[in-house]
Amino acid sequence: MNERPGTPTTEGHSVEWALAVLGRDLPPGLGRVRRHRRLAGGASGSAVHLLSVDGEREVVLKVSTGGARARREFGFYREVAALLPVRTPPLLAGAETDDGQTVLLLTNARPAPPPDRWSARDWERAAAQLGALHRPEVAESVSGFGWLSRAERDGSAAAAHTARAAWRRLGHESLARPLLDRDGEFGNALSRLPTCLCHGDWHVDNLLLDADDEFVWIDWQEAGLDRGPGDLALLWQRAEFDGAHPPREAMFAAYAKARGIPLDATLRAATVAAEIRMILYGWPDHLRAVDPARRDIVLGRLARLAAEWETLGRAPVTATAVRDG
Question: Which residues belong to any copy of the Aminoglycoside phosphotransferase domain (predicted)?
Answer without folding.
Answer: 37-256
